[in-house]
Structure formats: C-alpha cells, structure tokens
Design goal:
153 residues, mainly alpha, 3-stranded mixed beta sheet, 7 helices, 3 strands, globular
C-alpha cells in the first residue's frame, strides 16, 4: 500500500486538460508503464524525482522528452505514435518511458556517465534498456511518415 502511494506521488495525476483531449486511454497506458519503470529504476538504485504530469506529443525524431519545471517537478512527454504502436513494440515503449523517467533522477538530466551507469544497472536487473539507438529512432520516423502524423501537434 505504501509503495502504491509513493508511486502515485511520483507518477502524477491526470489534469483536466488531459482528460478532455480524448487521449485518456493512451495516457493511462503511459502511466501504467511509468509505474512499472519506476519500480525497475528503484530496484537498480535510481530514485526518480517528482513527475507532475505526463503527456503525448508529436516529434518523429524522438520517443520522448523530459522537462524540469520551475517548481522542481518534471513533465514527461512520450511520442503519441510510439504509444499507439506499444502493443507491437512493447520493448521500445518501455525503453522510452524508462529513459525519460531516468532523466528525473539526480545527476541524470543529461546522458552523462551517471545516466549511462544507471541504464546498464537497470538493464542488468531485468528492466528496460534506457539507451535507445539511432536504429530505434528511425523506426518512429518511418512510422510517422506512413501514418501522416509528422507535423501534427
């Protein structure tokens, strides 16, 4: 019960705006995967910061984005096309979510040595691979071109 309360604080709540966008199902999938990834990160000794909100966005060259808010919390955005294909590419989806959440850990906002060390430790402990390759990114670009999502915000 205590773990669930802590995860709820870290995962954040759905805002009114998110509920009204029609993407509630996709955001629920992101939150569910985030809770899983947070458990894996903590098991590896990486403790995420407070994530204020999750969102979806369109950027064919990247899977996600982590932003530090002025109040010290974080906003994590995950590519909408990636979430839409999560059933076909669950490893990529988990990796992208874990990657962005790892950025909220102290000392991991960039892709420096600590970020890479935690990435390896998470992977060795059975968690997702937080280091996405250029090959992985090219998949999302191809998908967005096929679906004519590119350029839609």
């Amino acid at each position: 019960m205590q773990r669930e309360k802590e995860e709820e604080k870290t995962v954040g709540k759905t805002s009114e705006t998110e509920q009204n966008t029609g993407d509630a199902v996709l955001l629920a999938a992101v939150r569910k995967k985030a809770a899983y990834c947070i458990r894996k990160l903590k098991k590896a000794g990486a403790f995420p910061g407070k994530i204020k909100s999750y969102g979806l966005y369109m950027r064919p060259s990247a899977y996600g984005q982590c932003t530090l808010n002025p109040d010290g919390t974080y906003t994590v955005l995950i590519s909408r096309p990636l979430v839409l294909t999560a059933d076909r590419h669950p490893e990529m989806f988990a990796s992208a979510v874990a990657h962005e959440i790892l950025h909220t850990c102290p000392g991991c906002f960039n892709h420096g040595p600590l970020f890479r060390a935690f990435s390896e430790k998470i992977k060795k402990n059975g968690g997702p691979d937080c280091l996405l390759s250029e090959e992985d990114s090219s998949y999302l670009w191809k998908y967005t071109q096929k679906q004519t999502y590119a350029g839609v915000c």
